[in-house]
Specification:
alpha+beta; Creatine Amidinohydrolase; about 25% strand; binds magnesium ion
Length: about 240
């Protein structure tokens, strides 16, 4: 899983550098597919329940699951890139939000709060803690900062399949839920909105958008519970945890 995670991390690292005004989300997708395949892995998203691309590319008020298209990025946009790779039967899954040029201060704050909420969650991933300690860590940090967590979509267990039990909501009651044990691997993925937590799914059957049209942010890592503490499997080859 670590090797699959490195491929995801290095792909996202390269995509981040490509993000610029005028670049289309389809170009990012093509680059991701090429990179993942040339590393000997398979782009997990491609064909997953019929999803047509290798990354999800969601812009501004699109929360997750955006389909890459000829849409060109513009100065002031934010793009969420979600990427998965399967290597030798094991999956890595991670997502980043990248700003296109300068973005307004509220969006800067949204991105920082979402990043930090993921790290709050990671710190809870130690043996003996409960699943909703992880969930609550996200919710607490986000709501203290005046934003809201999406409730209709959540993180998940991950291993030989991308989506395994348990589901990992970004809200919950601390001290409850599954007891975390060594070897459990979760994809933690806060989806954080400036306004309402409510979302709609577009007629394409995939793209999730905020109901109020306000921006949304998403970061994700695949993380293992170990006796030495949480290990981010979607860190780069050099161990750097990119957010
Ligand atoms: Mg993902
Ligand atoms: Mg995921």
């Amino acid at each position: 899983m670590r090797r699959a995670g490195v491929i995801v991390a290095e792909t996202l690292r390269a995509l981040r550098k490509m993000v610029a005004p005028g670049v289309s989300t389809l170009e990012l997708d093509a680059y991701a597919e090429k990179t993942i395949r040339s590393a000997g892995a398979y782009p997990t998203f491609k064909g997953y329940r019929g999803f047509p691309a290798s990354i999800c590319a969601s812009v501004n008020d699109e929360v997750v699951h955006g389909i890459p298209s000829t849409r060109q990025l513009r100065e002031g946009d934010i793009i969420k890139i979600d990427c998965g790779a399967t290597l030798d039967g094991y999956v890595g899954d991670a997502a980043i939000t990248v700003s296109v040029g300068n973005v307004n201060p509220e969006i800067e704050k949204l991105m920082q709060v979402t990043r930090d909420s993921l790290f709050c969650a990671v710190q809870q991933m130690v043996p003996g803690n409960r699943l909703y300690d992880v969930s609550y860590a996200v919710q607490k940090h986000v709501e203290e900062n005046g934003f809201s967590v999406v409730r209709d979509f959540c993180g998940h267990g991950i291993g030989q399949r991308m989506h395994e039990d348990p589901q990992v909501p970004n809200y919950g009651r601390p001290g409850t839920g599954l007891k975390l044990k060594e070897g459990l691997v979760l994809a933690i993925e806060p989806m954080v909105n400036v306004g309402t937590h409510e979302v709609n799914i577009l007629p394409d059957g995939w793209t999730v958008k905020t109901k109020d049209g306000k921006p949304s942010c998403h970061f994700e890592h695949t993380i293992a519970v170990t006796e030495d503490g949480p290990v981010v499997l979607t860190a780069g080859e050099d161990g750097e945890v990119a957010l």
